[in-house]
Each structure stands twice: as C-alpha cells, then as structure tokens.
Specification:
Blueprint: E1 4-8, H1 15-23, E2 41-46, H2 50-59, E3 63-65, E4 68-73, H3 88-95, E5 100-106, H4 122-153, H5 158-174, H6 184-187, H7 189-195, E6 203-208, H8 219-231, E7 234-238, H9 240-247, H10 252-261, H11 268-280, E8 282-288, E9 292-299, H12 304-311, H13 313-317, E10 319-326, H14 327-332, H15 336-341, E11 346-348, E12 358-364
Parallel strand pairs: 1-4, 1-5, 3-9, 5-6, 6-7
Antiparallel strand pairs: 2-4, 8-9, 10-11, 10-12
Helix pairs in contact: 1-9, 4-5
Length: 366
C-alpha cells in the first residue's frame, strides 16, 4: 500500500525545488518560468525512524528497510484552471490521484523570480488554488448528480445514499467551503473518495521563505498560519533553497554542522514527513527477523489482518493471528525470545487494532 502527497501551488513558488530536496533527486527541473513541470515527477522518500534502528541492532538482520512516503510534483496551477487554462485539466487529473495535498506558498520577495499574479501574497495564492479546486468539484458533482438521479429513478437503491451525499457536498461548495472543512470528509470519507472530490483531501501548507527567515518565519508565514488555523490545517515553514543545499550533503556530520550554523535543529524534510504522517493519519509497525527488519505504514485504526496484508497479500487472506510485541518491550527484553520469556508477547486476533510501534509476527494458513 502506498501513500502519496501531491505538491501543488502556483507556478514559481518553489514546488520543484522542494521536490528535488525531498526526493534527493534532480529529476524535476527547477527553472524560473511557469509550467516547467509538465509531467508529474514522483519521488519516494525514506521515513527515518530511530525505532527501526534499535530493532535492527538487536535482530542483526541482513538488511533494514525503512517505510516510505511518495511525493508527486504536479504542474503549477493558474487562475482559470477549472476551465482548462494553463495546464489546468492535467493538474486536476493528477491531483485526483493523490491521498493528500502539500500546498507550497511563496512567502519571500525576489525581483529576479517572477510571480504569476504580479506580487507576493500567499493567502491570495492559496485562495486562488482553492477556488479552482472547488469549481472543479462543483462541475464534477453536477455531472454526477445528473447520472445518479437517472439511476435512482431507474430503481437503483444503492444510488440513493450516493445522490444524497453528492447533493449535500454541492450545497457546501456553493456556500464557499471546501469539503474537508465541514466535517463531511470524516463522516463520509469513503463516499467522497468514490466521488473523487478534490477539496475533501487533507492539506498541509508549506511556507517557502528566504534563508534568513527559515528559523523564525515572517509576516507572510504568520498570515498563512492564521488562515490554516481557521481551516484546522497545519503549516510548516521551510526554505526550499536550504533544503536543496542540505540534500546535496552526503555526510551526516556535515549536514548537522550546516544546519546548526543556520540555527536549524533538523532538515525541513523531517518536518514535512512528520506533518505528512499526521495529515494522512498514518502509523508505523514493524516486522523483524534474521533476514530483514522492515518498517511498514498503515492508516490509524487498521486491524491486524489489514496490516498483515501490507506485508504480503497471503498474510491477510490466510490470517490466523499476530504475535505482537511493542517496540519498547522488544528493546527492553533484548529481542523476541526475551519478550516471550517475560510474557510481553501477545497473541492478537482478527479484531486487534494495530498500534504505532507494534512488532508483528503473523501466523497464517493459505
């Protein structure tokens, strides 16, 4: 199971520079002109987790595998995208495929970098993108309501709830609210996903600032923070330029010294990944043995068979039970056998809800 975040925003706000830093790749051009990113670039980023290192120190496996988040660099959107302006149709198609949105906002002034709207105003930019997504959702819902109405008239009972949800969603959008702000996404998440609603996707605002403002932010990032608070969203302040420089350093000591000189305790990448996990409501569980220690990602609330299926589809199909140890107990007891001897290993069935940090040994029969 993969989880991906689409990096979106107006042209020339630093999306591709951020993507390059996040994915530690030069595959996405970062040039000073609109629509440089035409096809969406995809990069998978290892999620560093100190717990995995502690597990591996005890298990001494042949290899260690971190869990990953996927980032998608999507073409810049402009006003009128919902009507096909710029690369609007492509932008909207690409963003429908991601699980969450990382919305990059320009919070720096630079006369050498053109702004598509003629001046720097991150709140206005956020509203421009949001408006286009809302318009696209409204157009999509109107088409779906027409089709669903015909199905219901034809006796399709399953279409009744879907039609009610679509009509409610359209009312919310016509009232000027994105669907994620109205509690509708939480109560009807699966239905909204079936309707492919753009504004139901969770959003993280990333404020791209100059190097001098990377530690404290500025007046523009404060405005974004206020806007995000009203929406119940999160913000992260980073300098894409700094992240690009950090990504080019291979030595960890050198990285730490570079960040320390700038007054930063960690790369912005770490903040974005941490926020991305919260955004997608993800947790990490582990498997470990002599061949491999592996971190896996699952949505919070997933039951043991679902988690087992992420490791291998046969594990879910033939799930019997999961022998479970918390990471803390595994480390404290010196490994699996020590945890067994101390009575810290539990046998959990199909209804067990996996917790963050669980180490699972799946028993199955196909």
């Amino acid at each position: 199971m993969g989880f991906n975040c689409g990096i979106v925003g107006l042209p020339n706000v630093g999306k591709s520079t951020l993507f390059n830093a996040l994915a530690v790749t030069a595959s996405a051009e970062a040039e000073n002109f609109p629509f440089c990113t035409i096809e969406p670039n995809i990069g998978k980023v290892a999620v560093l987790d100190e717990r995995l290192n502690r597990i591996a120190e005890i298990s001494k496996p042949e290899k260690t595998v971190s869990t990953q988040l996927e980032f998608v660099d999507i073409a810049g959107l402009v006003r009128g995208a919902s009507q096909g302006e710029g690369l609007g149709n492509q932008f909207l198609a690409n963003i429908r495929e991601v699980d969450a949105i990382i919305h990059v906002l320009r919070c720096f002034a630079d006369n050498n970098v053109a702004h598509v709207e003629g001046g720097v105003d991150p709140v206005r930019d956020a509203e421009t993108v949001e408006t286009e997504l809302m318009l696209a959702d409204m157009e999509s819902l109107e088409r779906q309501i027409t089709l669903l109405t015909k199905k219901v008239r034809g006796g399709d009972k399953e279409g009744i709830k879907q039609l009610e949800l679509a009509e409610k969603a359209l009312e919310i959008l016509e009232d000027g609210q994105p669907l994620r702000c109205m509690g509708l996404a939480e109560g009807h998440g699966r239905g909204l996903r079936m309707l492919h609603m753009l504004t139901a996707k969770p959003v993280l605002y990333v404020c791209n600032v100059d190097e001098a403002d990377a530690t404290t932010g500025n007046a523009l990032t404060e405005k974004v923070a206020n806007m995000a608070a009203e929406q119940g969203a999160e913000t992260v302040v980073i300098s894409a330029k700094i992240e690009a420089e950090v990504s080019q350093l291979s030595d960890e000591v050198e990285k730490a010294e570079f960040l320390d000189a700038l007054g930063l305790s960690e790369p912005g990448l770490v903040q974005v990944i941490r926020a991305g996990f919260r955004l997608l409501d993800l947790i990490t569980f582990f498997t470990t043995g002599p061949k491999e220690s592996h971190a896996w990602t699952v949505r919070r609330g997933a039951k043991a068979p679902k988690a087992a299926g992420i490791v291998h589809t046969d594990f879910e199909r033939g799930f019997i039970c999961a022998e479970t140890i918390t990471c803390d107990d595994f480390v404290a007891c010196g490994g699996e056998q020590g945890a067994r001897d101390a009575g810290k290993m539990r046998q959990e069935g199909k209804d067990y809800v996996v917790e963050d940090g669980d180490i699972l040994l799946v028993r199955f029969n196909v």
